Amino acid sequence: MSVTTFDLASLDFDAIARRNDQARIQRIVMFSVTAILALAWLTPFYYLAISIFKSNAEYGMGSPLALPTSFAPVIENITEAWSKAKMGSGMLNSLLYGLVGGAAAIFIAALASYGLTRIDFRGKGFWFMLIFSGTIFPLQMYLIPLFMGYNKLGLTNSRLGMMLFYTAVCIPFPVLVLRNYMAGLPREMDEAARIDGCSEFRIFRSIVLPNCWAPMATLFLIQFTWIWNDLIFSMVLTNREDARSLMNGLMVLQGSYANTTPNVVMTATLLASLPSVLLFLLLRKYFMNGLKLQSL
Amino acid sequence: MKQQQQAFALPPGAPSIDAMIAAENRRARKRLWTALAFMAPAIGFVAIFLLLPVFFNLYASLTQWAKFSGLNQFAGLANYQRLASNPKFYDATWNTLIWVGVSFVLPATIGLSLAMLVRGVKGEETFKSIFFLPRMFSATAVGVVWYYVYANEGIINSGLRAVGLGDLANRWLYESHLATPAMIVTHIWQQVGLMMVLLLIGLNALPSEPMEAAKVDGASRSQIFRHIVLPLLMPTLIMVTTVSVLAGFTSFDLVWVMGRDFPNRSTLTLSVNQYWESFRAGYWAYGSAIAVVLGVIAMSISWSLGALQHRLDKR
Questions:
Q1: Domain segments of chain B as ranges
Q2: Can you give the pTM of this predicted structure?
Q3: Spatial CA neighbour of B303 closest among B245, B230, B232, B231
Q4: pLDDT tens readout for residues A88-129
Q5: Sequence ranges of the domains in chain A
Q6: Cross-chain residue pair B34–A200, CB shorter than 8 Å
């Protein structure tokens, strides 16, 4: 029987403590670096936020990063931005395009995905590729023909025309996502309903659709913000104030330097961005889920 | 023997085999029509608003269409020849190449660094949101804000002056060698948060066993990162690169807002050049040809990166 003996003095008991210290220092360093970077990242937003509180004269004088002397000028900035960029009608138009275009596109995509996943027929791959091919061309290839076609049909400067196009352009991506999602739902549910004599549309509406709300809500957020933030199609398909989107109005306002000062343009920018940014801050989880969908 | 034959015999009154096949074919056809009815709205919208324009665009690029006439006059490849001899097109192509080259490397690299930095840090969710926030603003809004950030008395110049580097102050958007890099910086500031989040999703989905095994074997952190994390993350990295290259390549809004009044328009990209030639100058056929060039480049980028992805998947 042998007894193992340790020379206690030679054991380095402090090693663990030192490693913990090291890890803590490392954590603090990582946190500080991240925090400094985040502050740098936010600087343009800080600049945006303080500029809306400055009067024309004040903006022209001091340092652009100086805090405003009072909050009062914001009222005047908002009224000027609101009337010069016609933000009232722009806001309504963008809301209309985003809500109708996004919702219609996702409903139509859900219909198509039902056909692609819950009914057996030959040539699924072909029909899917036909719909999905709407994502492979750069948007620039649509501009000229759309403009000409809309001109011929009298759809330029019409809200209907804008809604129709936004619906179309927002269909293919949700079809990809919803097709994958619906393929994962068990088929026993609809087989049972089919034996009970339910029509296909009834199965779609009462069985499959209720199970797809989560991805559909996320997809709607993605498409709504895309439409809200789009500039080029509004530029090409509208040139009158009553049909143009908010971003288009903002772009026009920025272009008319002569009679608008930066503080007013920035106020318009913040107002125009507020809806989509608030949506993000409130529904962050859904947006992050949407990115997961995108990366599949 | 006899019994087996019995089993195959059809019960009296049953339809013949041929009739049953015919009935099944009928049902299959009915299923096809039902499915088509479900897909009809999607197919209709995509065909009319997206595919038809693409074909019309291809056709128009082969005509002499300008201002109000010439759509019925065939021009062959003359528009494409004109591209080759137009200095504006060269400028635009060169700038676009810079955009593509930078978006190949920087957004994914910076996004990955941010992802590694943010992961596990205290307040990770808040930091993620901060870096992602610019993405929620439209490119138009971001362009407007940064237009003033880069202005003569903007925060960059006054910041440089404040720390005594006033010599470095510049008219960022109005010098031909600075305008494109300045716009790209803005673009990256806006996009990198998205790349970071996508890469974090990829990182969190990686299996942890290989890393733990390597740690037990005494591999250093940089070794683990280089030899285990990076190869496993490759599919996500390629996806992120594809997203970023296509976004940089077709970016219109930002360049339009920040750079449209640059003298000579020599800092514009192909997508803005296309808009200008068609909607400002009225050269519809020529603009269509630029759009076709853009389409070919975009498709070859996504095709080759897709092929690379496919090869990796097979391994």
A1: 97-265
A2: 0.89
A3: B245
A4: 999 999 999 999 999 999 999 999 999 999 998 988 999 999
A5: 8-74, 79-294
A6: yes
